[in-house]
Design a protein that fits this description.
Layout (H helix, E strand, L loop, with lengths): L7 H12 L13 E2 L12 H13 L18 H13 L4 E5 L2 H12 L5 E5 L4 H8 L4 E5 L4 H9 L5 E6 L11 H11 L2 E5 L14 H4 L8 E5 L9 E5 L1 H10 L1 H4 L6 H15 L2 H21 L4 E2 L6 E5 L3 H13 L2 E2 L1 E3 L10 E5 L6 H10 L5
Parallel strand pairs: 1-11, 3-4, 3-5, 5-6, 6-7
Antiparallel strand pairs: 2-8, 7-8, 9-10, 10-13, 12-13
């Protein structure tokens, strides 16, 4: 590889990352037993879902490959608006607005709802997309200690203007859940506008996978809730649910919605069909929860010396400190045909590097048991 003077600063940054044993590289799907993907219910590999999408797409007699514009110009359709109403009703909200990805949704929401003089408070483990959206806002912002209600309340007391609070119902890197009931009580006490990211809860928690906000009956206590479709729903895109006023506001002020080409009809149909399948997936959700408990029981029995983050979600994390150490453990597990991945510093703090195991309804008890047995701390 030839490095030009113009690219020297880029190569230096890559060299530094490499020296820290933290250089990221793309790897293709490897055909190993999946304990890595976010396809919690198996929708992404579902032949039934694929057939339903194909049938509905052909029934619409659509002749366009793309949407051909933003939704405020040529890209809007009655199908999109009907789907938004259906999604809002499913999660028990008044309205919703579709985005092309969860990243777009969080960027678009947090960059526009808070103004100069307002305050955005967020859990210190909040997703990078929320942090990036907050950065684009003119509001004051700071974090509170992860799931620490006392620290949260102290931060709220020192905040100014309208106060927005951002949390995840299930945290993507730890797999643990936010104490949403207690957080909602605090928000109601101080008039804080609560925003909940349910990316890793949809399809897993609540009646027919409607999420933790629905499960805890907190719909009226939240200002906005985000759901993404690239995980348990097996397709792509995202939606922000809230009031009709919030929807209209985002249409007018959310730049990642206004200035991007709309999702094509095929993508909208995929989301619609995924929701139809989700309605019929209660048994798969029960199976998934059984798999989670089975892994926890097997791992806890076999590995008292290893640190596992307590989690009731599909995400189970085993701490193996050090980028080099955790990569060695992962390499050994991959040689045994298990697709697990290391989460390295700087994605997580130094000393908290980990193996992030994702469980699925299609993982067998035999696969889970063998995986649990093969874990070994690095020598």
């Amino acid at each position: 590889m030839i490095v030009t003077n113009k690219e020297q600063f880029l190569q230096e940054a890559l060299n530094k990352r490499g020296a820290e044993n933290a250089l990221r590289k793309l790897t293709a799907t490897n055909g190993l037993i999946d304990f890595c993907s976010n396809d919690y219910l198996g929708f992404a590999r579902s032949t039934e879902l694929a057939k339903n999408i194909e049938n509905e797409f052909h029934s619409t007699k659509n002749i366009r490959n793309g949407s051909s514009g933003s939704r405020l110009l040529a890209g809007n359709t009655k199908y999109a608006e009907t789907l938004e109403k259906k999604i809002a009703k499913y999660h028990n909200f008044e309205a919703s607005l579709l985005y092309n990805s969860g990243y777009d949704a969080n960027i678009g929401l947090f960059s526009c709802v808070a103004k100069r003089g307002d305050t955005i408070i967020y859990d210190e483990l909040i997703h990078a997309s929320v942090r990036d959206g907050v950065r684009l806002s003119f509001a004051t912002n700071y974090s509170f200690k992860h799931n620490d209600l006392l620290d949260l309340e102290q931060k709220i007391k020192s905040a100014n203007g309208k106060i927005f609070l951002a949390v995840e119902s299930v945290y993507s890197m730890d797999g643990d859940c936010a104490p949403l009931k207690e957080i909602a009580t605090i928000c109601n006490k101080y008039g804080v506008l609560l925003i909940v990211d349910e990316a890793h809860a949809i399809g897993v928690f609540g009646e027919n996978g409607k999420g933790i906000v629905f499960e805890l009956q907190l719909v009226k206590d939240v200002f906005a809730t985000l759901f993404t479709f690239g995980k348990a729903m097996g397709c792509d895109g995202a939606v922000i649910c809230g009031s009709e006023i919030l929807r209209n506001y985002l249409i007018n002020f959310s730049r990642s919605f206004i200035y991007t080409t709309a999702k094509p009809l095929h993508g909208l149909i995929s989301i619609n069909c995924a929701y139809e399948l989700l309605k019929q997936s209660e048994q798969a959700i029960i199976m998934l929860k059984n798999r989670i408990q089975y892994f926890k029981s097997k791992f806890d029995k076999l590995h008292h010396s290893l640190t596992k983050i307590e989690s009731e979600s599909t995400i189970q994390c085993i701490i193996i400190p050090g980028n080099e150490s955790v990569k060695k453990v992962v390499a050994n597990l991959q040689k045994l045909n298990f697709d697990v991945r290391a989460i390295l510093y700087p994605t997580v703090p130094k000393g908290l590097e980990r193996i992030r195991i994702c469980l699925h309804a299609y993982n067998t008890e035999t696969e889970i048991e063998i995986l649990a047995k093969q874990f070994q701390a690095p020598v």
